[in-house]
Amino acid sequence: MSVDGTSEDPRKVVWFDIDNTLYSASTKISQAMGQRIHAYFVSLGIGEDEASELHHRYYTQYGLALRGLARHHDIDPLDFDRKCDGTLPLEEYIKPDPKLRKLFEDMDRTKVRVWALTNAYKHHANRVLKILNLTDQIEGLVYCDYEEPNFTCKPEAESYRNAMKMAKITDPSKCFFIDDSKLNVIAAKELGWGRCVHFHEVGLDAMEGGRMKKLEVDGDSGADQGIAVINDLEELRVVWPEIFSV
Ligand SMILES: [Mg+2]
User: Fold this and answer.
1) Which range marks the domain in which residue 133 is found?
2) b/e string for 17-44 if b means 16 or more Cβ within 10 A?
3) What CATH number is given to the structural domain containing 135?
4) One domain, residues 80 and 95
5) Range 46-55 contact pairs with CB under 8 angstroms and sequence separation of 24 or more
């Protein structure tokens, strides 16, 4: 029983990151996003080189360029969201994937609740889920609340605790989690989240923190830290067999 006298849902909660996890980094959304973030830095009067440097530094330090911008510059996160995520022509980049939808349909909802956990704001998250035809498959969305002056985001511990609170779950071992950011997965693992998976696409030129980086198979994937590493979401059927009905 929980403190308010209601019993906690016994099912596990599967948390899906959205961007570059529910679709491949090869879709180039992250590149288009990187260009917009760069332009945003420049619009603040920051020079081209410094803009690139700060973008990368904030992404590396905070997990999200906007977190650094909100902390160190006088900006309105919602204005940033409108100009960056809000102008992405997502429909040109991603399409519904019947195989992905089937993967969601095959998760046994008597055993799991399926939620999304994203560092994006709700508008972008909902747009992506709608385009991918997954809106009805996601029971809850935990997004980065840019309306909060001091919002929290992955990989900050507070963001995972907040997610658990939103889903009314108190036992971290009941959380399953998949994200393309190794730092985000490690942070969840450190908080005791039960079954963590790093979605690690290999051989792609992907944008991270405003810089192009080739995703390689290397010792950096997280496999050595008790974290499963996959490069195709279908592999979830293998790493989380107990939550699939087929
Ligand atoms: Mg991601």
Assistant:
1) 12-26+91-243
2) bbbbbbbbbebebbbbbbebbbebbeee
3) 3.40.50.1000
4) no
5) 52/210, 52/211, 55/209, 55/210
For the stretch 209-220, pLDDT in tens is 677 666 665 555
**Is there a single domain that holds both residue 212 and residue 229?**
yes
- 1 CA distance to ligand 1 middle (Å): 34
Please give the distance, rounded to the nearest whole angstrom, from the Cα atom of residue 89 to the centre of ligand 1: 18
User: Does 150 lie in the same domain as 211?
Assistant: yes
CA of 49 to the centre of ligand 1 (A): 25
- Sequence-distant (6+) residues with CB within 8 A of 103 are 233, 234, 236, 237
Taking only the tens place, the pLDDT of each residue in 198-240 is 999 987 766 676 776 666 655 555 556 779 999 999 999 999 9
